[in-house]
Design goal:
Keywords: Signal. InterPro entries: LolA/LolB/LppX. This is DUF4412 domain-containing protein. It comes from Syntrophothermus lipocalidus (strain DSM 12680 / TGB-C1). The two termini are 34 Å apart. The chain has one domain: Lipoprotein localisation LolA/LolB/LppX (outer membrane lipoprotein receptor (LolB), chain A). It is mainly beta. The strands form 2 sheets. It has a 12-stranded mixed beta sheet with strand order 9-10-11-12-13-3-4-5-6-7-8-14. β11 and β12 form a beta hairpin.
Length: 245
């Protein structure tokens, strides 16, 4: 799996929170006493704004999510990388383009194996997963263990069509990176993460088209007819003691 990506950034946006006013209009009463002026009422009814959810309640929505898919856009001073990720319990699938080549990976934590599929060649290789293979650029990387008492809610705004709480924090690395997170109130997941390094360099991770729920059964299956080379099997067949050259 992909190694957890650290991100850097700062941005300012604003949201106008409106509430509606309902006025009582003029009306005639058949039982109105004589001599009483039939003037419009000056009373107005003000609708109460929706109760603001606490940060703890919002973050709780993103805890324990086992099945989801999303697209990501990583922008760094070195360039931009895009891709899509599918998560379902112990299984992970990523589809991204690296240096102009499309690469699809399938990781199974139960067997600790990873299959790397190259669509252009219609070939794949299978290998035991490394120590970092259980990490992916997931939105929960940033909020899974976030302590609400150690972050600051600086505003609430609409971002990419969703109502978000904008959080400000210092990165756990203790190197002075300042982090801003846009956390969707309905999902409890960040859709934008900006971090600014002490040097001033900024990196932005965006999560789009987030879907939370069951995924199709064939999501983690290779297309039919793909030739898979099992590197583990090949290495097991090598002699135990190879001569040194």
């Amino acid at each position: 799996m992909l190694k957890k990506i650290r991100v850097y950034g700062a941005v300012l946006l604003a949201m106008i929170l409106c509430f509606s006013l309902t006025g009582c209009g003029p009306g005639e009463s058949k039982n109105e006493p004589q001599g009483q002026s039939n003037q419009p009422s000056t009373k107005t009814q003000v609708s109460e704004p929706a109760k603001e959810e606490s940060l703890s309640d919002v973050l709780a929505k993103g805890q324990g999510l086992k099945s989801m898919s999303y697209e990501f856009i990583l922008t760094t001073p070195q360039g931009t990388q895009t891709g899509k990720v599918w998560l379902d319990g112990n299984r992970l699938k990523t589809d991204s383009t690296i240096e102009g080549k499309r690469i699809v990976t399938f990781f199974d934590r139960t067997t600790n194996t990873v299959i790397t599929y190259y669509p252009e060649q219609n070939q794949a290789v299978k290998l035991s997963a490394g120590t970092d293979s259980n990490e992916a650029p997931s939105p929960t990387d940033y909020t899974g263990n976030l302590n609400p008492n150690k972050v600051k809610v600086i505003r609430t705004e609409i971002y990419d069509g969703a109502r978000c709480k904008v959080l400000e924090m210092i990165a756990p690395s203790s190197q002075g990176e300042k982090v801003l997170l846009w956390v969707r109130e309905d999902l409890g997941l960040p859709v934008r993460v900006e971090t600014t390094a002490a040097s001033g360099e900024k990196t932005i991770m965006e999560y789009k088209n987030i879907y939370v729920g069951s995924l199709p059964a064939d999501t983690f299956e290779l297309p039919p007819g793909v030739q898979v080379t099992d590197l583990n099997s090949m290495m097991n067949k090598l002699p135990a003691n190879l001569p040194n050259r």
